Amino acid sequence: MSANYNSTDLGAFHNVWVFCEQRGGVMTSTTFELISEGRRLADELGVELCGVLPGDGVDGLAKELGGYGADKVYVCNSPLLRYYTTDGYAKVLCDLVEAYKPEILLFGASNIGRDLAPRCAARLHTGLCADCTHLDVDLDGYAEFLRKEFRLDTDGMSFTSNLFDASANLKMTRPAFGGHLMATIVCPRFRPAMATVRPGVMKKRTYDAGKAASVEVVHPAFSLAAQDIQTEVLEVVKAAGKLVDLIGADVIVSVGRGISKDVEGGLKLAGELAEELGGVVGASRACVDAGWIGADHQVGQTGKTVRPKVYVALGISGAIQHRAGMQDSECIVAVNKNETAPIFEAADYGIVGDLFHIVPLMIESIRAAKAAK
Amino acid sequence: MKLFVTVKQVPDTSGKVSVKPDGTLDRASMQTVINPDDLNAVEAALQLKDACGCKVVAFTMGPPPAEGMLRELMAMGVDEGVLITAREFGGSDTYATSQILAAAIDTYGLEADDIVFSGRQAIDGDTAQVGPQIAEKLHLPQVSYVGAIEKNGDALTVRRLLEDGYMTVKVRTPCLLTCVKELNTPRYMNIREILCAYEKPLTVYDYDALKDHPLIDAETIGLKGSPTNIYKSFTPPPKGAGRILEGSDRSTTDELAGILAAKHLI
Predict the structure, then answer these.
(1) DSSP letter (8 states) at residue A356
(2) Which residue does chain A place closest to B128, by CA atoms?
(3) Do B242 and A348 touch (CB under 8 A)?
(4) How many CA atoms lie within 13 A of A346 on its CB side?
(5) What is the span of the domain harbouring residue B69?
(6) Which has fewest Cβ within 10 Å: A3, A222, A285, B177?
(7) How far is B197 from chain A (nearest CA, A)?
């Protein structure tokens, strides 16, 4: 940390920053979610929203960030930034933070964001909240969030603190203990307040072509030499076979332990139902741990958070870890043999029965309903 | 060469979890387990020990009963344990925790050919932050989400898992790796090691043992020194009860299809 940088000098820090993650010159979809969310926070604070975009020849991506709400994008091009390395990216990002002093710094909670953010927080001597699912600056907005999302009675709640100004600090909300508890975290004594944000949770704004055209692109001075980077990337390999895009899917049909008596048959039925509904197949952690299906299908606290229009849970008991990843779906349908399964507490519509019996009937009924339209 | 492993005793969140009326976790009613990803870190170190014959030292920060967990790890083959325990360290967030662990590792002695293994993340907080933060505090290169390790001399070739594939990364010792469950299958305790587990050295680092280390500053450790604070915590209420459709035959699925069609969902 340079001598003139002091993370406790709160008044010196302004603006909201988003680390913009690209892989192979393609922006991750989570980055657009973060830019959209960052726009809202910047408006609540009345400051600028800036993206930081390290890469190699990535100027062309800045416009798109503007389209989702960025006022300004700091682009750092270098052959040394072509592939992600902790050392290279952390040096560039921390040096920029020390020079420009943003008050809030957001990252996607991807395998890259969750590698980079803690390294930077430790270097910058500030706090970092992991895997957030909600962010607020405005206190009224935070109270409304508690009322609407959690049905908490906020009238009797005290939102002030004698230790810090609650209305000026970023309030970072996240699940803990496998989703059994929600915690709202603040970083009152240091800046920037840093957070990684769970992919798929923040809503993307509508793309604004006018804003895209007017985004300010800045090429800040930065220094990075090969010897700053202690690791060497030998190869980058994309997974063979197409990974399932759970986050972008409108319909997800997920399977759980209920398929254990005929795993292959259960997956086939789920696939057929998903195809009939125009969706993809998801799975509970139990199925992934058992090796029945790839980890890219996993929905839940340790998997992906999804909010499709229709979520069908087949033979999933509905442990809180699973519900944490799907409970915001627009319409949840559960099929389970056990009428006391907790999944029925999360479901809009439940059918008590064996999935191997029910799913073929569901497919017939849906076909008939579509034909009748 | 020494291999360090950072481990944490955590409440078992996969079992029954009870929450007290004030919204905090009722830890007394819960089982504790060794954090699952940390077992993969222990196994990675033990496999390297099997190949090179070096010493494996497990570090944990927690209340005194965490010694039991260290003894279990010794029964798997870990050679030494370091228990970091002090009231002053309680309530630390990830930043403060990483400073204390880094100070402990440094106090024990970190040499050029050593490797620190951490689990990817702990199931109580799911942050995945302490490993990288220790690496920064010790100025070590880090590789997180490690799914495979190959060692040639002082260089390690590791597979770093990404959501859409992986990277192969070369890193030299000393370094820190965070391990995922795909890396290996943790071994069980074995009889020979169980018999000598209680004879293996266990060092306790209390506040006095670490307080003079440059990373330990009363202003930046423990609850008071942690950069992040809990503002509010609460339990998510269950969603309003849905409707169980009657029966389990074609008329039931027809009713469901009718509802979905009426909502323009199909």
Answers:
(1) H
(2) A114
(3) yes
(4) 27
(5) 2-225
(6) A3
(7) 31
Give the DSSP H or E segment for A148. helix A139-150
Q: List CB contacts (< 8 A) between A121 and chain B.
A: 95, 129, 133, 227
Contact A233 B167 (CB under 8 A): yes
**CATH tag, A10-228:** 3.40.50.620
> Is residue B263 in some structural domain?
no
Is residue B230, in this structure, part of any structural domain at all? no
User: How is chain A split into domains, by residue range?
Assistant: 10-228, 251-368
Does any domain span residue B204? yes
| Architecture of the domain delimited by A251-368 | 3-Layer(aba) Sandwich (3.40)
- Is the distance from CB of B7 to CB of B73 less than 8 angstroms? yes
Tell me the shortest Cα–Cα distance from A193 to chain B, in angstroms: 9
> Which strands form B243-244's sheet, in the order they lie side by side?
A280-283, A251-255, A310-314, A331-336, A349-352, B243-244
CA torsion sign for B100, B102, B104, B106 is: negative
**Residue range A317-341, pLDDT digits in tens:** 999 889 988 988 889 999 999 999 9
Is B257 within 8 Å of A320 when comparing Cβ atoms?
no
Same fold, A10-228 and A251-368: yes
Average pLDDT for consecutive 10-residue bins of chain A (373 residues)? 84 97 94 97 97 97 97 98 98 98 97 98 97 95 92 89 92 85 94 94 93 97 97 90 77 96 95 92 93 92 86 94 87 94 92 96 94 80
Calpha distance A124→A8 (Å, rounded): 10
Residue A369 and residue B229: Cβ atoms within 8 Å? Answer: no
- CA nearest B136: which of A73, A110, A86, A287? A86
Who among B124, B143, B170 is closest to A176 (CB)? B124
Nearest to B136 among A119, A358, A362 (CB): A119
**Distance of residue B57 Cα from the nearest chain A Cα, in angstroms:** 24
CATH number at residue B134: 3.40.50.620
B14: nearest CA partner in chain A:
A178
Residues in chain B with CB shorter than 8 Å from the CB of A333 are 256, 260
ipTM: 0.91
Closest in A87, A185, A365 to B230, CB measured: A185
What total number of domains does chain B contain?
1
Give one word for B37, left, alpha or beta, with left for phi > 0 and alpha for psi -120 to 50: alpha
